[in-house]
Specification:
five-stranded mixed sheet
Length: about 110
């Protein structure tokens, strides 16, 4: 067994032993995908933003259990748990919504 073959074996094992977590974030009220929502993979301290179709993706995720957190202006943070194995990817979709708050009359004095 040569050193080169051991390095090749190790490299191929590393490439196979990581998963991808992906999904989409949409507005639950308007049913439209959200651009620019922040998605965090808490346990790995990784963060990304959603693209034009509300999509996000985290590659090279080691097998394990994780918490995804979505933040978007005007909404509450939303969390979901996800588990991945060394060979299976995971898809997690989010529907987030905000509550409309109606204010009473305003008086402007000047």
């Amino acid at each position: 067994v040569t050193v080169a073959s051991l390095i090749g074996l190790f490299a191929s094992t590393v490439l196979v032993s990581a998963a991808t977590i992906s999904g989409r974030v949409r507005d639950g009220n308007a049913n439209a995908y959200l651009i620019g929502a922040t998605v965090s993979l808490r346990e790995l301290a990784r963060t990304t933003s959603t693209g034009p179709g509300g999509e996000f993706s985290f590659g090279s995720v080691p097998a394990g259990a994780y918490t995804l957190v979505v933040t978007y202006a005007g909404t509450d943070d939303v969390m979901k748990s996800v588990s991945v194995t060394a060979t299976d990817d995971a898809r997690v979709d989010f529907a987030i919504s905000s509550e409309v708050v109606r204010l009473g009359a305003m008086v402007v004095e000047g």
